[in-house]
Amino acid sequence: MFIETYLKKKDFFIINPRTHSFGGVLVSLFEGLKISKFSKKKILLCVPLINTHSKHKKKKIYGLNLIYNLFLKLPLKQKIISVILSIIINLNLSLKLIKIRGLFSMIFGLKKINKILPLQIGFNYSKNNYFDTNSQIWKEILKNKIEFKLPKKNSYYKDKFIALHIKDWSHSEINEITNEAVSDIENCKKSIEYLTQNNFKVVRIGNKFSKKFDFKNDFFYDSTLSDCSLPDQYLNYANCEFFFGSSTPGCAVAEFFDKKKLIINSPDQWWNNGQSFNKNNFILFKKIFSYKEDRILSLEEILSDQSLLVDGFKTVRKSKNLIYIDNSPQEILDIVKSYINLNYNQEREDESLLQQYLDLRLKNINNFLRDKNNIEHHPRYYEVKMYKYAEINIPSSFLKNYLFQSSELIEQSSKAKKEKINFL
Known about the structure:
- The chain is α/β, with parallel strands linked by helices.
- The protein has helices at 2-9, 22-39, 64-72, 76-97, 100-108, 110-116, 135-142, 189-197, 230-239, 247-256, 299-304, 306-318, 329-343, 352-370, 372-377, 381-386, 396-402, 407-419; strands spanning 12-15, 42-45, 162-165, 202-204, 220-222, 242-246, 260-266, 277-285, 287-290, 295-296, 322-325, 391-393.
- Helix 8 (189-197) packs parallel to helix 13 (329-343).
């Protein structure tokens, strides 16, 4: 595209944030900001203000206060160009909304219309022809901090606190979501009790639709009861000590605000390890039960299956043979203890199983990236290459049960079948 090529030659880097998505806007912003910082390019913002996503019940726009804070810091010339780019993209989105762009596509062809009336200009994390590099340089880019700041006000505690967010069925009020994406905050009750008993303050973040949670403690504040606004949610993420909760939006929130993260019930983030390049971050994956095998699949089996490794969420959702099982309250408590022990008490677990997991993952990621068919056709190839060298921590207790086929895995499978724990 001419406009992209011209501005790139002038040492500008265009960030095109995915404002239709709570998590997507943060991913596109933090990745774009890290690229521009690493490559020493001048930032431009091309900001969509119209949501045309077909599966969104409410056409919301996210991240505008974050984008506005970024915009204010730009020099005047960059502000002017950013406004012009944003006007162009929103005019094109308007034409799509009123079906005129679709009519033009039928007459002149979609390829030509995408060049004349583009819906993306610049870096958008799903777009792979604006900026690309090899996996080693991606590691150097993505492991850096953004150092984005919001004012320290309106926080619920003056002292440090943990930001807790659990994605539940309330999100279906805005977007279509499936069983595989949700978690139950009740499974975190033991962990919240543990944290508050150890003098950690916890703020639950979410909207008024969030599941009601009966928990009373002076060290726990539930902002969902007051319908915490999106700008206030961002403020709390920005001012927290670390993030605890669901992978979406948790991984992106933590990366944008340079926070450590403790992720639970991740359905399919083996391919990017929760967007982490630091073993001080922790993750738990949902288990996958196979009706055919009549047991839970080991992580080794999941990592060896490209459809699960790279497209786990879609593969499980479409399969009649596979189903997710949530992390148990005990597994969540175990990861919380492991996180606290490492990050606050400097007590590191034996990492031999963790290293085996990381080696298995890297081996299978390399297999995926070398496949010519994936190079030419797989829509996630670009992102997998970005996060090839991602690293994260997993409690040894979880890996002991689920990394390989073992007596422990068979025992957990029998327990799951007997108790029918959180079959979604």
